[in-house]
Amino acid sequence: MSEAPGSLTSLRSRNRLLVVETVQRRGRISRVGIARATGLSRTTVSSLVADLLAEGVLTEADGTGRRASPGGGRPATPLTLNPEGGGVLGVHLRHAGIRVLFADLSGGVLGERYHEIDVDHRPDDALAYVADAALDLVAAGGHDAGRVFGMGVAVSAPIRSRSHTLRTSSVLADWTGVDIAARLEARVGMPVHVGNDANLGALAEWTFGAGQGADDLIYVMLSDGVGAGLILGGELYEGATGSAGELGHIPVVDGGYVCRCGNRGCLETVVGLRALTSTFAHTRGPDTTIADVVALLAADDPGAQRVTADAGRMVGRALVGICAMLEPRRVVIGGEVAAVGRPLLEGVRDMLARQLPPPIGQEVTVTAGRLGDRAEALGAIALATQSTSAHLLTR
Amino acid sequence: MSEAPGSLTSLRSRNRLLVVETVQRRGRISRVGIARATGLSRTTVSSLVADLLAEGVLTEADGTGRRASPGGGRPATPLTLNPEGGGVLGVHLRHAGIRVLFADLSGGVLGERYHEIDVDHRPDDALAYVADAALDLVAAGGHDAGRVFGMGVAVSAPIRSRSHTLRTSSVLADWTGVDIAARLEARVGMPVHVGNDANLGALAEWTFGAGQGADDLIYVMLSDGVGAGLILGGELYEGATGSAGELGHIPVVDGGYVCRCGNRGCLETVVGLRALTSTFAHTRGPDTTIADVVALLAADDPGAQRVTADAGRMVGRALVGICAMLEPRRVVIGGEVAAVGRPLLEGVRDMLARQLPPPIGQEVTVTAGRLGDRAEALGAIALATQSTSAHLLTR
DNA sequence: GCGGTTTGTCAGCGTCAAGGACTAAATAAC
DNA sequence: GTTATTTAGTCCTTGACGCTGACAAACCGC
Questions:
Q1: What is the DSSP code (8-state) at residue B55?
Q2: In whole angstroms, what is the distance from residue B149 CA to residue B183 CA?
Q3: A228: pLDDT confidence band, cut at 50, 70 and 90?
Q4: Which residue of A has its CA nearest to B249?
Q5: B98 φ, ψ to 5°?
Q6: Does A360 touch chain B (CB under 8 A)?
Q7: Chain A within 8 Å of B5 (Cβ-Cβ)?
Q8: B226 and A CB contact within 8 Å
Q9: Which of A5, A233, A328 sits opposite B38 (nearest CB)?
Q10: Which of chain B's termini has less CB crowding within 10 Å, N or C?
């Protein structure tokens, strides 16, 4: 595991990782292909691949359907990540429930569990459920638990990255100071990595979803709370203290409602799930849900149109400063509220186009997330996969 | 120069770079010290150092004053970067003039030239001056031109990082599309690296100035234009298109003055050098300079106090969103306007403390820059040094 | 079946960093 | 003054690594 930083074995480790990442990205690639892609020699790749095959990380895929080279030549042996070579678990702890995903190393989902539970006030119950569901999924998939390399956990709270514990959060109040990683590691017997849910949502949309190829993107999670995740220069940016992305607490209304953070007029007080639905309390009753709003929009209800577009403009307003400073290629809108679709996106686009200085405004694309509910859990999968590649495969 | 990515020689190159960087950071460190700091073995370090000594990159410093170890033992031989081993040039092209610095590889300034010239409309004159001054400085320092490894250039305009050319800019209108790097390379015969001045100011304050140790910082350059540079996760962040940091064009006043970017109420229209001094037109005449404002402040003039504090608050307002999203450790205020000092800083602090959500607000420090006028040129030095280390020493 | 072509492996070689033994140069104790 | 001790730096050997070049394998078209 640990090794001298500049030694020969570290070089081999780096090359191993290079090979695995290449296969991960390209899928079904031959040894020669890897050599061309990485710049390593065929011999070296062969040697590394031999190791990885022996360890069960890669497999030689079936040759059928392989494209013969023009003019003949020995057909290449396509290599893929071994689907039975291992898997990872991804968990999303949100205030209303828990989602657990089981996926192979390339991010293909093999199983899923969702459980409604009042996560806020029951850390022990929640963690117990997570552990049970996780082990259950692995068993149901017929997988060897020893080849499940890790678990990622997305949590709706800022994370102290060093200690893995949660900082104060009014969403998960009873969880403050709980070391989720340690507790879950004890239960499931594998490395557990914890991250903020908005950050992991960003990672997911970037890896699997609407943000593919955009190495600088902002993911906006419009849910009960409002958060954001940043991919900057092709890497997840978590900030010095691990809680970057407090989009929800940017003031957007002068002298607006008081927010749970103590300030006034925060974005969250205007476009949070509850704030948004409560706008309809007078006409549609106090129990209006986001699904109701979607239905109204489908029926071309002008009030709903107006409200969601306004919400989008508020999001845009909060984003202007950040977009001017960071010049992201893409803004991806996710979270439950994103289900309302177009009018919201139009609102965001409208505000950005109007307030950003000319060159930048045209370079930012605003899109809806493609992963829906599962974005954060998929991000947890990606987190676990990254750590797995880095730690377990590098040896 | 170019080499296989995973080969043995690449490993040696990386280790070379590691050694040089360690010496750069620590200064006067022995071989054993380097070994401890890098994790390499004494043998390896010795071998690398031998190469670097032979090439003149390092020198064995004088042993006098060396601290003998407690309990005796052979005294260590301190190593330093060879002051005569090479130098780099740093240039700042601003609208009103040109600054050229000559420094050794550790950032020590060996010579300086400043020339007032209307840079905006005379690309050829300006570049000719830069080349003359640069070669002159090298000769005056008694240095061998062959051991000057590169030149960095800070420019008040967005840079297309790929092509090294300038994008449209209303500050340097006649420079649009000019390939500064290529033109200067032809004149001075060394690699030239071009960067945005605010970005390089950030790099300078982080490397040499008020931002040392803060791996996440925002540098605010309050000059005629208003720009910003970002250090994120210990690296300069330039954005996808190389023009991140458009702080000056964040709207801060609803329906304010029209800005040169086409929008209304941009930060630049309120706190730019001209905007700020023109506030005093009625009472102090139209030719008020920033020095006059400083004098007024020194005399406890209440109007000046008020104006500068308000300017600070506007800067703070523009920064709130970014600070909430990025959680920087430090905000460094530089540029000519920063000379007004305390009331401006207090204004920024006031606004951030009031509008940032509680945990973040306390974690950000707002400081004045320590490098003054020379920050951007020093950043150009840092840029050239980085590139030098990476390209020339890695061989 | 036979040359042509591409894939993958094998053996030999040069390079690299690490570990241990050794020399160099100082201090501390006697 | 001499000897033991401690730390710094070098020399030599060793094991691992990746690359080059040669060779076998597997397919094409004729």
A1: T
A2: 17
A3: very high
A4: A357
A5: -125, 130
A6: yes
A7: yes
A8: no
A9: A5
A10: N
Give the three-class secondary structure for A243: coil
- Quote the tokens at residue A226: 């409002």
CATH 3.30.420.40 fits B86-201+375-393, yes or no: yes
Measuring CA to CA, how many Å separate A209 from each of A215, A225, A363, A379, B92? 13, 22, 19, 10, 42
| C-alpha torsion angle, residues B379, B190, B119, B238 (rounded to 10) | -40
CA of B8 to C1' of D8 (A): 28
d(Cα A298, Cα A225) in Å, to the nearest integer?
25
Distance CA A266, CA A251 (A): 4
- State the pTM of this model: 0.85
Integer-rounded Cα Rg, in Å, for chain B is 23
Residue B327 and residue A261: Cβ atoms within 8 Å? no
Q: How confident is the model at residue A200 (pLDDT cuts 50, 70, 90)?
A: very high
C-alpha A363/C-alpha A317 separation (Å) is: 17
Query: What pLDDT score does B163 carry?
Result: 44
Give domain limits for chain B: 8-81, 86-201+375-393, 210-370
pLDDT for B240? 66
Q: Do B357 and A247 touch (CB under 8 A)?
A: no
CB-based contact A251 B320, cutoff 8 Å: yes
| Residue A90 one-letter amino acid | G
Q: Does residue B167 sit at the A interface (CB-CB below 8 Å)?
A: yes
Query: If you ran DSSP here, which 8-state letter would residue B29 be given?
Result: B
Cβ count near B258 (within 10 Å): 11
Residues B69 and B76: their CA atoms lie apart, in Å, by 9
In this model, does residue B40 exceed pLDDT 80? yes
Of A6, A10, A239, the CB nearest to B216: A239
Mapped to the 3 state alphabet, what secondary structure does chain B carry?
CCCCCCCHHHHHHHHHHHHHHHHHHHCCECHHHHHHHHCCCHHHHHHHHHHHHHCCCEEECCCCCCCCCCCCCCCCCCEEECHHHCEEEEEEEECCEEEEEEEECCCCEEEEEEEECCHHHCHHHHHHHHHHHHHHHHHHCCCCHHHEEEEEEEECCCEECCCCEECCCCCCHHHCCCEHHHHHHHHHCCCEEEEEHHHHHHHHHHHCCCCCCCCCEEEEEECCCEEEEEEECCEEECCCCCCCCCHHHCECCCCCCECCCCCECECHHHHCHHHHHHCCHHHHCCCCCHHHHHHHHHCCCHHHHHHHHHHHHHHHHHHHHHHHHHCCCEEEEECHHHHHCHHHHHHHHHHHHHHCCHHHHHHCEEEECCCHHHHHHHHHHHHHHHHHHHHHHCC
Using an 8 Å Cβ cutoff, are A330 and A292 in contact? no
> Is B86-201+375-393's fold the same as B210-370's?
yes
Instruction: Find the CB nearest A322 among B8, B167, B322.
Output: B322
Q: What is the pLDDT of residues B182-208, one digit of tens each?
A: 888 888 888 888 888 899 999 999 988
Nucleotide nearest A77 (Cα, C1'): C7
pLDDT of A344 strictly over 60: yes
- Tokens, residue B217: 């910082």
Q: Render pLDDT for A12-44 as a digit per residue (tens, 0 to 9).
A: 888 888 888 888 888 788 899 889 988 888 999
Fold adopted by B210-370: Nucleotidyltransferase; domain 5 (3.30.420)
Q: Which CATH number describes the domain made up of A86-197+375-393?
A: 3.30.420.40
Structure tokens at A184: 């879950």
Residue of B nearest to A19 (CA): B6
B296 touches chain A (CB under 8 A): no
- Class of domain B8-81 (CATH, top level): mainly alpha
